[in-house]
Amino acid sequence: MAANWRIAMFGLANLFLTTHRAFQSTDTAINPTELQIYLTVAVANVQKLMRERQIPEQFTGTDILPREWVVPISRNAIASATGLPRETVRRQVEKMIERGLLIEDPRGGVTPPEGMVEKLGLAPILEPIMTEFTRTAEMLIRLGVIDRQED
């Protein structure tokens, strides 16, 4: 991997930029810091589901997850995961709550509100993000940066 950092980082950075452009195209445009926080919250929130050996088919698309499958994340955990200063995370999360992008979870931490895919109109932007992800993965495989293993 070390011999291919430039190639790998190009692909990953380009994927982030594609994701940011896609989110900018929604009615609720978010800045890069908000995107980093939002994606961190989204990843944390589905970690319980992603640990399942077999993900229930109804949850593989954009159907709303039942709240018992959603794992809230604390502001401190967001700061640790992103490398952003805690105070920046605290301020940004508060703004995102005010804008309706995140909610305080009764169990502690934050989650996106139910129905965010529909509310933000994310369904149409998911395809270009996945297309770029696929293109990036294929490029990294073709160049030998990563290896595909058949099970």
Describe this structure in words.
The chain is mainly α and 151 residues long. It has 2 domains: 1-26 and 122-146; 32-121, Arc Repressor Mutant, subunit A, CATH 1.10.10. The protein is 55% helix and 3% strand. A hairpin with a 5-residue loop joins strand 1 (103-104) and strand 2 (110-111). The radius of gyration is 17 Å and the shape is globular.
Descriptive key words:
globular, Arc Repressor Mutant, subunit A, mainly alpha, 2 strands, 151 residues
In short:
The protein has helices at residues 5-24, 32-45, 47-50, 75-82, 86-98, 116-119, 123-142; strands at residues 103-104, 110-111. It is an all-alpha fold.
How would you summarize the topology of this molecule?
Blueprint: H1 5-24, H2 32-45, H3 47-50, H4 75-82, H5 86-98, E1 103-104, E2 110-111, H6 116-119, H7 123-142
Antiparallel strand pairs: 1-2
Helix pairs in contact: 1-7, 4-5
